[in-house]
Design goal:
Elements (H helix, E strand, L loop, with lengths): L1 E10 L2 E11 L4 E5 L6 H9 L5 E6 L2 E2 L5 H6 L2 E4 L6 E5 H8 L5 H10 L10 E2 L5 H15 L3 E5 L7 H16 L3 E6 L10 E6 L2 E7 H10 L7
Parallel strand pairs: 3-10, 3-11, 6-9, 9-10
Antiparallel strand pairs: 1-2, 1-4, 4-5, 7-8, 11-12
Bound molecules: adenosine-5'-triphosphate.
Keywords: Amino-acid transport, ATP-binding, Nucleotide-binding, Transport
Protein name: ABC transporter related protein
InterPro entries: AAA+_ATPase, ABC_transporter-like_ATP-bd, ABC_transporter-like_CS, BCAA_Transport_ATP-bd_LivF, P-loop_NTPase
Length: 228
């Protein structure tokens, strides 16, 4: 469903993506692994259309390289940020309602339960009062409510406890069950077990892409062979 061809991206004179090629199949959980600074977040931002880049991005057979973020979002692509949202004064229910495809309180309640949060959190503010883990789950709830075709999740596993880690893994599997393809960005190999396939990014290049177990072994052996 997504094909990235020879993607190149330069920011402030630095080449961050150096000709990235990879594909995500329909209804697949695809893990993008890479050490810090390998370009994972930049790749997701380029696919979302946040930064202009050279190369081609094909989504469901259409060339979307020159489309805006909003046009891509309308086509069913979404990106959940690494640092979850903070909006002082905005209630969780209102934050979620903006992105929800089905705008009903019962849908919000169902999803908030799915991500393991209590119903009353809907009436709290999306701000400092919530922990990082809670805001991560709210971010995940907002992605679920969008019902996207492709969800790119940037490090949903960072800064969370083991219990939340299991719950987030379950939610990602359910996303797949609901027909969403998932591009999962992480530098932890623990999340690889829920993936179907994986890609290793290193210094802005794809060094391997393929079956989960094969990539898991490769990453353990040599997480970034291009780095000296
Ligand atoms: N605005 C910018 N200008 C110049 N270089 C940048 C800019 N933003 C990011 N970079 C550089 O691009 C490289 C890739 O960053 P990116 O955040 O995409 O990596 P990452 O793999 O997601 O890292 P992490 O695992 O630490 O989140 C890094 O070396 C970073 O310093």
């Amino acid at each position: 469903m997504l094909k990235v061809e020879n993607l190149r991206l330069v920011r402030e004179g630095k080449e961050i993506l150096k000709g990235v090629n990879f594909e995500i199949a329909q209804n697949e959980i695809h893990l993008v692994l890479g050490v810090n600074g390998s370009g994972k977040t930049t790749l997701a931002q380029a696919i979302m259309g946040i930064y202009p880049c050279d190369g081609r991005i094909i989504f469901e057979g259409k060339d979307i390289t020159n489309l805006s973020v909003w046009e891509r979002a309308r086509m069913g692509i979404t990106l959940a940020f690494q640092e979850p949202a903070r909006f002082e004064g905005l209630l969780v229910k209102d934050y979620l309602m903006v992105s929800a495809k089905t705008k009903s309180m019962s849908k919000l309640e169902e999803i908030i339960k799915m991500v393991g949060l209590p119903r009353n959190i809907l009436f709290q503010e999306v701000g400092e009062n919530l922990s990082g883990g809670e805001r991560k789950r709210i971010e995940l709830a907002s992605v679920l409510l969008m019902e996207p075709k492709l969800a790119m999740l940037d490090e949903p596993d960072s800064g969370i406890d083991m219990l939340s880690f299991r719950l987030i893994s379950e939610v990602i599997k359910r996303m797949k069950g609901m027909g969403t393809s998932v591009m999962l960005i992480t530098h932890s190999e623990e999340m690889i077990d829920i993936a179907d396939r994986a890609t290793i990014l290193c210094s802005g290049k794809v060094v391997a892409s393929g079956e989960r177990e094969e990539i898991k072994k490769l990453f353990k052996y040599s997480p970034c062979p291009l780095k000296r």
